[in-house]
Q: What sequence folds into this?
């Protein structure tokens, strides 16, 4: 027997009038304890879970595009027909429900399936199985391995990762996890049994020291040789260290890995003082997280405004005031001269106490393996529109890949989580010979004290910035325009507008 719904949303088991759901419209209702999204495309009506499997985004506030829905938070895309997570950052499918049309009404009936839609259990094949080796267990490497199995690849999949931890949610390391508000179980992208069930061999704590292109093998740090038929390079980026006296002292830290984040947590003492060097995304997210732990935070950076080069002056000023309102002290236009135990000295001679120094001064793509193996490099590993390197059968994805972006007509290399995952997914299909072009519009988000700045597109330079809305009310869209064309849109609390801009850019229009 079904219980009456407690929510103010319509109980979809009781049906809604056919005319209440227009073509192209979405509506969120209740089915038992769950919120279900009803979406209409022509005569077809779909019913899938209304909550994004990435971080719970409300899909009803997202965007329906053909028979898919996109999440308003970080742009994940789901199939309305099957619930499959078609595009990262969501990797887990959503439940679907059967829809019945009767007597001019639409009823939602039983759940169709709760099974994760991993298509393939590897099957034995005649002859030796094909082996795909993935170097790097981060965003791109993991997404590629997962997609290889989803696409039915039944050969051997090996991820070699220098990290001791299995693939995890890196963006969270400078946000809720560092602030102490995320439980440990949020961090792994998948539990250990996933790798066993999907026959993904994880070689953790293992560094690839050389790549032998002609011999189709990689050398591991212990001297072991691992052969491959196809290879994905997904080695990511590493934090830049400072070259100045004291930079190697133990309290001077960077943040890239889970171990780094745990080290910062161990050193973050309530009432203590941290100096963050660099007003970058990671530096300032770290500042926000440390403030939540009641650590005193000073930020030292050479620029006049935080993040101005990427977000422009108005958002830069907003980010600064947001941090200042939360107690961060900025020393802008300044660099460090020396670091000593317990304090730092600035270039103007001023001295700041600091029991913890966090460097957030940017990253460098890890391209040494590719370069030493003779692959084409130049500001990253050069790939074509299929993410294939200059050597056939060897692909690259994520922070190291410099790909031809169809929107700008330029080669891009960015450091965005969603881009890395989506490139991993496309590379996986191309490792299987699908010849799929990588055309996704770059997207990133950054979060400070619960305010998320979302950014779609890529604007290295612009003529003007058009602002709609009010930044201090946390309700704004800024369009970065060059020669009359919008290259990028930054938004706060305007998920739909960000999705519409993404769609326009995909269609070659200027949003
Ligand atoms: C703290 C933090 C917060 C972030 N927040 C955001 C955010 O909010 N939004 C956003 O869009 N982006 C964010 N990013 C950026 C995003 O995480 C990266 O763009 C993304 O992780 C890149 O994915 P990748 O697979 O290329 O590299 P990574 O995720 O860095 O993975 C690289 C992997 O390769 C391994 N590796 C490297 N060299 C070798 C080798 N020789 N042998 C074996 N393994 C090797 C590494 O151990 C690692 O496992 C953040 C990054 C950090 C560090
Ligand atoms: S919550 Fe939906 S994409 Fe992140």
A:
């Amino acid at each position: 027997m079904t219980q009456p719904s407690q929510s103010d949303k319509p109980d979809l088991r009781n049906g809604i009038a056919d005319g209440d759901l227009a073509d192209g419209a979405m509506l969120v209702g209740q089915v038992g304890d769950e919120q279900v999204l009803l979406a209409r495309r022509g005569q077809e009506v779909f019913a899938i879970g209304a909550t994004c499997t990435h971080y719970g985004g409300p899909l009803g506030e997202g965007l329906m595009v053909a028979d898919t829905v996109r999440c308003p938070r970080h742009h994940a895309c789901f199939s309305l027909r099957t619930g499959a997570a078609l595009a990262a950052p969501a990797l887990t499918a959503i439940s679907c429900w059967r829809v019945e049309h009767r007597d001019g009404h639409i009823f939602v009936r039983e759940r169709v399936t709760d099974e994760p839609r991993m298509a393939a259990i590897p099957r034995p094949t005649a002859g030796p199985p094909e082996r795909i080796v993935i170097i790097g267990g981060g965003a791109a490497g993991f997404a590629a391995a997962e997609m290889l199995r989803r696409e039915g690849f039944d050969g051997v999949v090996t991820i070699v990762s220098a990290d001791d931890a299995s693939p995890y949610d890196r963006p969270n390391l400078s946000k809720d996890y560092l602030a102490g508000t995320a439980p440990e179980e949020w961090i792994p992208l998948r539990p250990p049994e996933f790798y066993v069930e999907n026959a993904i061999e994880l070689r953790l704590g293992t560094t690839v020291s050389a790549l032998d292109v002609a011999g189709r093998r990689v050398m591991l740090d212990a001297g072991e040789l691992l052969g491959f038929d196809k290879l994905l390079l997904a080695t990511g980026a590493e934090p830049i260290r400072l070259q100045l006296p004291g930079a190697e002292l133990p309290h001077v830290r960077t943040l890239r890995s889970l171990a780094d984040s745990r080290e910062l947590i161990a050193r973050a003492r309530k009432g203590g003082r941290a100096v963050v060097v660099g007003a970058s995304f990671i530096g300032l997210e770290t500042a926000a997280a440390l403030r939540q732990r009641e650590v005193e935070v000073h930020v030292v950076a050479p620029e006049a405004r935080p993040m101005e080069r990427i977000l422009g002056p108005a958002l830069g000023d907003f980010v600064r005031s947001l941090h200042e309102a939360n107690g961060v002290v900025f020393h802008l236009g300044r660099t460090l001269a020396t670091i000593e135990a317990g304090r730092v000295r600035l270039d103007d001679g001023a001295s700041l106490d600091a029991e913890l120094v966090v460097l957030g001064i940017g990253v460098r793509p890890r391209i040494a393996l590719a370069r030493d193996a003779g692959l084409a490099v130049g500001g990253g590993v050069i790939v074509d529109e299929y993410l294939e390197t200059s050597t056939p059968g060897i692909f690259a994805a994520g922070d190291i890949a410099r790909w031809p972006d169809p929107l700008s007509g330029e080669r891009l290399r960015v450091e965005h989580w969603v881009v890395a995952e989506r490139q991993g997914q496309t590379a996986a299909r191309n490792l299987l010979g699908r010849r799929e072009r990588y055309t996704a519009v770059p997207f990133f988000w950054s979060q400070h004290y619960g305010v998320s700045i979302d950014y779609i597109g890529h604007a290295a330079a612009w003529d003007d910035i058009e602002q709609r809305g009010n930044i201090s009310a946390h309700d704004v869209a800024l369009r970065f325009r060059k020669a009359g064309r919008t290259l990028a849109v930054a938004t706060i609390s305007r998920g739909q507008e960000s999705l519409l801009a993404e769609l326009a850019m995909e269609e070659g229009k200027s949003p």
User: Anything to note?
Assistant: Residues 308-325 form the longest helix (18 residues).
